[in-house]
Amino acid sequence: MSPFPEKDDHRLVWSSDEGRIEADTKKPSRDSGGGRLRIVRETKGRRGKTVTVISGLGLDDDGLAGLAAELKKACGVGGSSGDGVIVIQGDKQDVIATLLKKKGYPVP
Questions:
Q1: Domains of the chain with CATH codes
Q2: DSSP state string for 38-55
Q3: What is the pTM of this model?
């Protein structure tokens, strides 16, 4: 008999029989940007620094990270990826558009 009363809302955290039990976490679905690829130059909220933001790619986090690495290397600058967008330092819209067209993305 367990020293804890059985309740519907009781959650088993650890048991010596099965080890640590954690709740399954689902990743929230990401908005694909309406199916439109966008390459935008931004300075707002970045202390005057210009960046190029690419959104609407429809890739998961691993795919975004890989594509971001390729774009950063090709442009010769830094950047980051996450939350469904890739941020590249500097105004590199033309270079990025050309590279994405070569990879088969529908660039406007």
A1: 30-102 (3.30.780.10)
A2: EEEEE-TTTTT--EEEEE
A3: 0.68
